[in-house]
Design a protein that fits this description.
Elements lengths: L2 H7 L3 E2 L28 H7 L2 E2 L1 H18 L6 H10 L7 H13 L5 H111 L2
């Protein structure tokens, strides 16, 4: 396993494990590959505390950090070359502590010393921190562009919805008031119609009475007067 994959495997859980990529503690059908230095790591603990990652994501991040280290690489052997040689010798010297001693002894001939190894390790750490800062800034910028705008749209729509609900409530109130007014006017119309009918009936009765009286008088006058 490469230095980058090994480092990432301590803090992520692969969603789809490739055979032999990360040996399970209980595997018995194959010789176990050397475990990472952090002895507390296990798939179960990683699953509980670390994010899931696909093989495609893992390969993408491995390529990213390889490029980052290549761009930051100094002339001569340093921390990066140290771990590349560690990867190369992993199949020949499975024990990591023994491999560290062997690689360091080999690179010492090329001018590497302990202080330079530690100093360059710190340098690569700073490169990663700088890359992390740039990444977080890019994420924030994308969040501002893609998420904040949508949240603003949601807020505007929620405000517009609340206003429309108020308008609906106001219209409902006006409709209820109109319905009550209609009922009142219909009642008033019924009262007035009853008055008109009563008045009309009274007038017609009086009118017919007067006509009948006059007709009766006319007959009496014709019969009794010479």
């Amino acid at each position: 396993m490469s230095f980058f994959k090994k480092a990432l495997s301590l803090f992520v859980v692969l969603e789809e494990e490739q055979p032999g990529a990360a040996p399970a503690p209980a595997a018995e059908n194959t010789a176990p590959a050397p475990q990472p230095t952090a002895s507390t790591y296990s798939p179960s603990s990683a699953a509980a505390n670390n994010p899931a990652m696909t093989q495609a994501d893992l390969s993408k991040f491995v390529k990213h950090f390889e490029q980052l280290f290549d761009n930051a690489n100094l002339p001569g052997p340093d921390y990066y070359e140290f771990w590349k040689m560690m990867d190369t010798l992993e199949s020949h010297i499975p024990d990591e502590n023994a491999r560290i001693q062997a690689v360091f002894a080999t690179l010492t001939i090329q001018g590497l010393n302990k202080a330079h190894l530690i100093d360059t390790a710190s340098k690569y750490k700073q490169e990663i921190l700088r890359d992390k800062s740039n990444f977080e800034a890019a994420v924030q910028q994308k969040a501002d562009a893609e998420i904040a705008g949508r949240r603003n749209s949601i807020q505007q729509m929620e405000t517009a919805t609340a206003q429309k609900q108020q308008q609906i409530a106001q219209l409902q109130k006006e409709m209820e008031e109109a319905a009550a007014k209609i009922a009142q006017l219909q009642q008033e119309i019924a009262v007035e119609e009853a008055k008109i009918v009563n008045s009309q009936q009274g007038y017609l009765a009086a009118c017919n009475a007067m006509i009948t009286k006059i007709e009766s008088d006319i007959q009496r006058f014709q019969q009794s007067l010479a």
